[in-house]
Amino acid sequence: MTKAIVLRELLDAILSRKLLWITVLCCLPIPLCTLVNQHTLLQFAAYQSRAEADYGKSLTGMVPADQIEVRAFRPKPALAALAFGLESVLPNMVLLRRDGMSVGQGQSQENPVINLFGRIDLLFMVRFVLSLAAIVLTFGAICGEKELGTLSLIFSGPVPRDSVLLGKYLAASIILIVPFLFSLLLTVLLMQFQGSGVLASGEAWMRIVCIFFLCVLYLMAFMALGILVSSSTSRPLVAITVLLFLWAGLVVVLPQSAGLLSEQLQPVESTESFLFKKNLLAQELDRKRAAELEPFLNDPNYDAIRAPIAMKYSVELTKAEAEMDQDYSNQRRAQFRLASALASISPVTPLTLGVTAVAGTGVPQSDQFISAIDRYQAEVSDKVFSQGYRDVFPGGRASLQVNLVALKDIPRFELTALPLNVLLRKIAAPVGLLILANAVLFVFAYLRFLHYDVT
């Protein structure tokens, strides 16, 4: 009986051209916006590769340590065109000097139009457009049949209610997911022909499968929601009105307001303010070191006297900065956990966290990049910037010792992609939330339909 219901719904979708419009909706915007994003990324990657190559060629000769600028380039994820995530805000390059660190702009920061309206990618299409299509497909699944009078005809025979509900749910899933799968495969193949190398490894295919699985769970949750509301009302107009309000709240309002609410409940100072505090700490320790060293400025053994004193303040600075970094990181994590917990009421949150992580543009990659930069800065400081010194004393007096550093010996920054098995462990909770949302919504829809008045 379930099979008959599925075939009936599929035939109705074909005759009413629902399947045609869903196919057009999937197979035109998704490949088009992804190819545009991919073209932009490939262009930017080419510019960055040339800049990195030029930087590599410049690393010749001997240069004073206090005049060296070390550059760290962040590689582009291969699947970033599918879900930009944090790619638009993470720096493309980090510049390290003896007096501190500066970062380059994220990609979208260079385009004011993108800043105003946002970038459209596969994740955007699934979150907003296809989720809306899911509730349009299901809002009249039950109450629409009742209004037409066909629901009572269906149950005039010995038809189990669970077969009807499951048949409609599966049919709606097929109508939406099959065109989406076709559009995703078409998109990936076009990306490969464009020269992205996205299909270069078996793991890349596994990542695409994971993205597809997460999107399917998300869309099926909205289809279950549509059937639940349709089973709770007797008029399609009421059902679509309620669903549109729920869609707006779950997809638009709740994810955005969760971040704002977490900032109020768990405030954290800005990154600029935090870096300014670190600079003030370094300057204060420099003044203390200079005050301790000043009496020995004219001593012939100044270098020997300076070494243990400088080491003491260097260790103190390193320890203080590590404590500040750890405290700031803990505050940021606490704020992120609170925002995620508040936003997890909406299926948008687990979908976004999961898809961006698998695509290489999510929170795990951001944390990995920040940690890698911190380690690289410590390595460069130890091997490059620690060569020689410059002590400035009150009154403009200074003691200077500058050592030459071979540029070819400067360590290079490396950042490898997180393995898929590591990412799957990190997104286990979001996947579990999506599965739970599907189960809860479908069970409630089933319970409502068991007592639904079909006449």
Structural class comes to mainly alpha
Low-confidence stretches: none
Order of helices and strands: HHHEEEEHHHHHHHHHHHEEEHH
Give the terminus-to-terminus CA distance: 21 Å
Task: Please explain how this structure is put together.
The chain is mainly alpha-helical and 455 residues long. It is 68% helix and 6% strand. The protein is built from 16 helices and seven strands. The strands form three sheets. Strands 2-3-4 form a three-stranded antiparallel β-sheet, sandwiched between helices. β3 (93-97) and β4 (100-103) form a beta hairpin. α2 (18-27) packs parallel to α8. The longest helix is centred in the C-terminal third of the chain and has 42 residues, at 302-343. The mean pLDDT is 86.
Write the layout of secondary structure elements.
Elements: H1 2-15, H2 18-27, H3 29-58, E1 62-64, E2 70-73, E3 93-97, E4 100-103, H4 112-117, H5 122-138, H6 143-148, H7 150-154, H8 161-193, H9 202-230, H10 236-265, H11 271-293, H12 302-343, H13 348-359, H14 363-385, E5 388-392, E6 398-402, E7 404-406, H15 420-426, H16 428-450
Antiparallel strand pairs: 1-7, 2-3, 3-4, 5-6
